[in-house]
Amino acid sequence: MLKTKVSECWQGLEPRSLMMLALDVVESLYGLAVRHKAEGDLLALERELAEVLAGQDAAEQLLPTLFGPLGLAGDWERFFSTDNCLLDRVLARRRGIPVTLGILILHLCERVGVRAEGICFPGHFLLRLWSGEEEAIIDPFTGRELSKREIEQLLRGARGNLARLKPEQLKGADNQAILERLLNVTKAAFIHHKQFSQALACSQLLLKLKPDCPVERRDRGFLFEQLDCHRLAAEDFEFFIQHCPEDPVADVLKAQIAALDLGPKTLH
């Protein structure tokens, strides 16, 4: 079950920092002791960064420092591992994927006074960092500034060769949008590894952010089905059908409900 404290603090997201929200996810999955270890690793990284940057221009040296002596890096070899989605493991390994490394970099930018924002770009989370009046689009997976051509290549990789870059795709995202991105990626990683209970916990958290979202209720229904909670699965499928009757998936779900065993279970 999700911890009450987590659900209560998510009644309003903006007063809480993005990093603390991401650590709420860790706590909801693995408990307070794991969260405390992660907070210790974060504090150690903050101290290392402050020592290296002392007397230097933080805006200019932040990324070279993080992706150099402090060892931050994108995990090319195990991109879809859950280790890359959970902030406690990202902090311990200093390895991650764009959204988790992006959340960490945003937190460190705030600590050292560098203006920055996250961008929920199609298929690849990005950052915008400022140095004075100059701004740059950064790939948090590599720490590199991206050219317009490279951004367009990322877009075509996610949306196909006919996709064209639009200004709204590079708008800054708020905490809720970034947290939803993190939870969706984490849920997908758990499903990939057939860890359905943990995926369900992510789905429950997503429903804290957007209550009664038909698509999320549908997805939660599939997870309930995998966990043999057939009556709960049917309730979620019926909710989707009621709210999205014209969706082609609705007919599939009707057949799915008919195939579920909704009778009482015999205990032995």
TrEMBL record:
Q: Which residues form the Protein SirB1 N-terminal domain?
A: 45-184
The protein's matches in InterPro entries, at most eight in alphabetical order, are given as: SirB1_N, TPR-like_helical_dom_sf
Report which superkingdom the organism of origin falls in.
Bacteria
Q: Which family does it belong to?
A: Belongs to the UPF0162 family.
* Protein name as annotated: Tetratricopeptide repeat protein
